[in-house]
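Pipeline run #58 for the internal structure catalog. This entry was flagged by the ingest filter as a single-chain record with no existing model, so it goes straight to prediction. Upstream metadata was stripped on purpose; only the residue string is passed forward. Reviewer on rotation: M.T. Logging verbosity set to normal.
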Amino acid sequence: MKCHAADAARPPVHRYAGVGLWSLDSVDETMYVTTLCCVQTLSAELEATKLSSALTRNDLLYKQIVADGRDKYKTLKLIRQGNTKQRVDMFEAM
């Protein structure tokens, strides 16, 4: 597994407490890009080795939730909307 720094995206430029823009120096940027590339490569390798027959009900549910673009923050936001009865009904329907 060889990661190439040129294949990954550059790190974002950050704003630090209104002082101005700053970015990572070249050593940190190279380390960031290399690490990012290696993580993406390992993630792809792990995804390829998964056995579809070994997936649990929770694994399938998680894949569906991620595909729908939901996460725990969006779910909690939805639960907090409406009156108490609506919130309880929505939570029980999950």
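catalog note: The longest strand covers residues 14-15.
catalog note: Residues 26-49 form the longest helix (24 residues).
status: ready for reviewer M.T.
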